[in-house]
Amino acid sequence: MSSDQNHHASDASDDSIQNVHDKLLTEKAEPKEGFKTMPLFLLGLVSTMIFVGSVYVVHYRGGFSPMVYDERYQPKAGGAEARVLTPEEIIASGKKLYATCATCHQANGQGVAGVYPPLAGAEWVTGSEERLIRVLLHGLSGPIEVKGNTYNSLMPAFGKVTGGGYNWSEERISHVLTYIRQEWGNQAAPITKEKVTEILNAEKARATPWTQAELDPFK
Ligand code: HEC
Question: pTM (2 decimals)?
Answer without folding.
Answer: 0.70
